[in-house]
Amino acid sequence: MFNCPKELKYTKTHEWVKEENGLYVVGLTDYAQDALGDIVFVNLPSVGDEVKAGEAFCDVESVKAVSDVYSPVSGTVAEVNDTVTDDPALVNNDCYGAWFVKVENVTGEDELLDAEAYEQLCASEE
Amino acid sequence: MGRYIPETVKEQEEMLKEIGLKSTDDLYSMVPEAARLKDLDIPSGKSEYEVFKDMKALADKNTVYSSIFRGAGVYQHYIPSIVKTITSKEEFLTAYTPYQAEISQGVLQSIFEYQTQICELTGLDVSNASVYDGAVAAAEAVFMTLDRNRNEFLVTETINPEVLTVIKTYCESRDVRLTMVNSKDHKTDIEDLKKKINEKTAGFYVESPNFYGLIEDVEDMAVIMHENKALIVEGCNPISLALYKTPGEMGVDIAVGEGQQLGLPMAFGGPYLGFMTCRKELMRKLPGRIVGETTDHEGRRACVLTLQAREQHIRREKASSNICSNEALCAMTASVYLAAMGPEGLRNVALSSYNNAHYLEEELAKIGFKRTDKGEYYNEFLTDSPVDASVLENKLTEKGVLSGLNVEGKILWCATELNGKDKIDELINAIKEVL
Amino acid sequence: MKLLFERSVSGRGMNYLPKADTGNRMPDEKYLRKSRLHLPEISEVDLGRHYTELAKQTHGVNDGFYPLGSCTMKYNPRINEEIASLEGFTQIHPLQPAESVQGAMEVLYKTEELLCRITGMDALTFEPAAGAHGEYTGLLLIRKYHQERGDSERNVIIVPDSAHGTNPASAVMAGFKVVNIPSNENGGVDLEALRNAVGKDTAGLMLTNPNTLGLFDPNILEITKIIHEAGGLCYYDGANLNAIMGRVRPGDMGFDCVHLNLHKTFATPHGGGGPGSGPVGCKEFLRKYLPCHMVEKKGGSYVFSDPEKSLGQVRTYYGNFLVVVKALSYILTLGKEGIREASGKAVLNANYMMHRLKDHYHVAYDQTCMHEFVLCLEDLKKETGVSAMDIAKGSLDYGIHPPTMYFPLIVHEALMFEPTETESREVIDEAVKIYLDLFEKAHDDPEYLHGAPHHCPIGRPDETKAAREPVLKYSFDE
User: How much is the pTM?
Assistant: First the structure.
């Protein structure tokens, strides 16, 4: 069973998002990090980049795979988490702490799931 | 007919029988009748002896000059015997790309050593395992500089024309806008460079020594590019780097070049290798194979292909380059050559080439072939020709000498360590006879 | 093992060259390199031994069986190396006058002619240096063709999901969008999906036949017809030509251009990952777009000429010339009968090996295969936990190079075997025995296989560490 904290929202493409003081914090779920295996590189966007809900905004590399990460919301990148660039293993060890970006000026969001619905989705993909 | 199949026809029939078939043709039953080839229209096979004789006859039709004063991107150097001996080892020769690290440490380690040596030569941080040739390295470097907001690229007019054609071809298909930067007296016009940079400019490519042999003011150009948040790519001559300032020392972001000079014969254009190095910030944009050091589960040193997620077999249509092989055996050749020569030996090759070329310039001037450019040059320079360049070429060919290259009605001369005093004096005497 | 740099001792080394006898000039100080150049300082004997040791840690075709799928690791005849070492080929400058390199130009001309006959094409360039480079060149031809006809809306290349990874990457590099189409239940192109995929935007199709499952697509004529009727061109990925040379030609299957891998099909050595050669052939109507420096025969002599609407150049000069020399020697040796026998035996060996393995291993598509076949180890993994990787690594301990793993992507836990024609029945029998042993081992002692190999110079390397903390060169102390 994968860890899916109740307070977060999820996308069907395995990103998590939470609202925090008007900013939307985005990261990769436990299911996603497990499926990818050892993550070796996170290619983050830059502060100021526009992101669109449902569109890829960065990618993560494991030893033998590369995977796009899709934005749950539309808006502007306000902060990026450099610590995951420096130490990508954080995504495997603490995926809900190792956020990727914080998005501001959010104008729209993708279809988001609550923890229960997301758990079901993961179970069906297993 | 020569054949490399171990079994006799009879043995093959037995194998067929064992899998329940009568003839080899049965294996092709799914091939539509209309597509089948009735008769392959090529000659019958020959014995090894006959093939050798025929091929030798072809080789003998080519003129092997006793001295060569032509470079223009490809150079004749002395290659120590040990280089060919090592790279002819059949383990290296007959291995595939080292996907299975456990039984490929030889190839992997040799690439790791090659990468280290190329970084040393260029003074930059990261090298890939090599690409097809120097021109492809330059074209791939163009793509490394691009990003979402910058898709225009500047190239100096003083570039080797063969390299330019390749860069143009690569850029055309990806809609990268190429703009040429003018030259003045066969050196890049820095004022024109400044004029042509804009906020879409991703980078600039310059060679030093350039096609005409001249040393360019790369340091100044690097400053200009960086002030405009763009990158600078230098095409370099690897031997000259034992003597001249390195790309790293001059603030260059990406250095590329033709590695043929590092132990590979001219061989009518190939195989060669293109080397590519960059600052570490650009590491993940570097295309092609890269070997890294790690350990196995017992802590033993091990080399592996790494950063593979950048590559085509994983990214497929999202890959930024489709390069999959490198020129591994050529990279090993370069590495053995550099190890054999050592730092002093390589410097000696560079200094000899430099001195021979400058002596050649002086001697040519005495018989009316005056140098037409000013400024520092390494081992190639341009002169006027008092006689028609192609007439000169033909006359010298009769004497077993390959003259300089006819460039825009002038002659581009070249000397390496193999064009010592005796060869140069011979050339001068031969030219005198023509005059 | 020690690196070259760790064997270096200051002051050691050979003098291969005298000092210049033309003076002691030095460039001005401001041009000079300041940083120290760390190259190894090493005696010739130590240098030789260093590489002898490296050679012992390298598995080549001459070390043993090398059934690496889609790579055609056949025997590389020694005579071809000797021929390619002749001075008349190695000591010629690419910019020598044409009259002085007539023999070299004849090599290019003759090889072009022979390869055109083998592929059913009309013209061919040797400029591309590798298979992927050839793909790129072939796609540029297709692009140029549509452009010149003012048909620039055509920007989609159709690629089956079983294709080599380079196909989509090359298509994007050549400025196309990629549309993937699924395979049908027999592993071939799904004709319905193909019909639905084509349209006014179709620039072409990239296909290898036999495909990466080792299967010949019997609908090939229908497939190329669908593309042509939609206004697209058909590109043949020649990676698998070894299965069919002398028997079926891409040109007769409806393909308009092809690339070949001389380092696979035509027995030139792979060199640990190059130099290869990826010539591109095309039908007459595409000739005028080929890269520069084509060899033509005028009067009694050979001349270089640039095609009228050439796409430019993808590499300098004439490609990897010495590789072409080796391939020509090979083709002349085999001739019409030998080429045909080679493909037949390659296919026979694959079928023989598949036949002998299939009672134990699950064959992904159980039908007559071409030069290679794919096993699916999904069931074995479910049963025993032993993966395709574990079996592959296990075979290393027996001196066998593993088959291609985890490819094609449409087969799970795939192992793809290509024995090639130059392996004898005894070698294949021995390999089969080893794979059956490994199958048993998977059931008896899966842990042992998870830890394999046990008897190689190194065990499985830590690839995660290599990628997370990249060490890409040796660090010198000062």
Answer: 0.95
